[in-house]
Amino acid sequence: MTLVHPGSDEKTQSGLGDSERILDELQILKVRWVNVCRAVSLGTPLPKVCERPGMPDLQLALSWMIEYPELALAYQIAIQARAQVLAEEAISVVDEVTNGADANLAKVRSDVRRWLAGALDPQRFGNAKAISNEAKSFSISWEG
After folding, report:
1. How many domains does the chain have?
2. Longest Cα pair distance anywhere in the chain, in angstroms?
3. pTM metric for this prediction
4. 9 lies in a domain?
5. DSSP letter at 45?
């Protein structure tokens, strides 16, 4: 789908003017983008989503995010939702351990989910300590 700015508002064979057609295409794009974001928020990486039938290819999806800031924002929200899901899965993985033999595997699975949640949304799930750049005041006096 190519979205162009209208040069005129002439009626096309479909009976829609250029402005109406572009608005219709933008609505279709937004519906498709909702489906992309839904899949990403549930854990499917964007390249895999873009391989699915009816989805934009990866290059087009990335160009949409550059061209339409609201789509980039929706994608960022989907990434944050994905981080939330991963953090909750980390808890579930550990809670489901029923014997000692599964404990090490559960720890690894939980740690990977926690790490990825922190990488996707470092403000909420990151482990890095905040570093303060506040200057301490001091004075120097010369005697002499």
Report:
1. 1
2. 93
3. 0.67
4. no
5. -
6 belongs to a structural domain: no
**Count of other CB atoms within 10 angstroms of residue 68:** 16
Mean pLDDT, residues 72-87: 94
Q: What is the pLDDT of residue 55?
A: 92
Count of all residues that appear for the chain in the document: 144
The whole-chain average pLDDT of the chain stands at 80
Burial per residue of 12-28, b for 16 or more beta-carbon CB atoms within 10 angstroms, e otherwise? eeeeeebeebeeeeeee
| Rounded alpha-carbon distances, angstroms, from residue 31 to 24, 86, 121 | 11, 25, 25
User: Would residue 143 count as lying in a domain?
Assistant: no
Taking the CA atoms of 129, 134, 139 and 140 in sequence, report the sign of the dihedral they define.
positive
Host domain of residue 58: 18-125
